[in-house]
Amino acid sequence: MPGFTCKWCHAELWYEERAEKSRTGPDIGFSICCGKGKVQLPLLKKPPDLLLALINGRDRRSKNFKDNYRAFNSMFAFTSLGGQINYNINNGGGPPQFILSGQNYHRIGSLLPEPGTTPKFAQLYILLV
Q1: Checking CA distances to 42, which of 6, 12, 57, 112 falls within 20 to 30 Å?
Q2: What is the DSSP secondary-structure string of 36-88?
Q3: Same domain, 111 and 89
Q4: Are residues 51 and 65 in contact, defined by beta-carbon separation less than 8 angstroms?
Q5: In DSSP terms, which residues pair with 5 in a beta bridge?
């Protein structure tokens, strides 16, 4: 777990994420989260009740969820990320940014191609023995 809290936005951060690497002590500052208070981010929405119950151990499936969350997360590795893309952010002053506004979603097609069609995307990684 991170051991430091930003004094402006209260984000939890690691020591190595401090803004000035030469500073030490209890009053180190962070800028990676909110730019030392210059950026005010909206609070995150409350996760769905089922997800909270799985994470907090209040559901009979919590143990399975916690034991296998990496596998569940990996299921999305070959999906296409979708959502409403905000193109107004990139102004040419740095590396391109990909920012989604609103709800994000994942799309995945069939793991096997239709007969007579060329495999594409995740279908290229499926090997039938």
Answers
A1: 57
A2: TTT--PPPPPPPPHHHHHHHHT-STTHHHHHHHHHHHHHTTTTSEEEEEE-TT
A3: yes
A4: no
A5: 12
Using the 8-state DSSP alphabet, how is residue 124 labeled?
A: G
pLDDT, one tens digit for every residue, the chain (129 residues): 678 888 888 888 888 888 877 766 666 778 888 888 898 878 778 888 999 999 899 999 999 999 998 888 887 777 777 766 666 766 666 666 666 666 777 778 887 888 999 888 778 776 554
DSSP-derived letter for residue 106 is E
| Domain count of the fold of the chain | 3
Which structural domain, as residue segments, surrounds residue 49? Answer: 44-74
Q: Do 62 and 50 share a structural domain?
A: yes
Q: For residue 122, give the 3-state DSSP assignment.
A: helix
Distance, CA of 66 to CA of 69 (rounded, Å)? 5
**Distances from the Cα of 59 to the Cα of 6, 66, 71, 72, 75, angstroms:** 32, 11, 19, 17, 22
Q: Is 101 helix (H, G, I), strand (E, B) or coil?
A: strand
> 38 with 48, same domain?
no
* pTM higher than 0.70: no
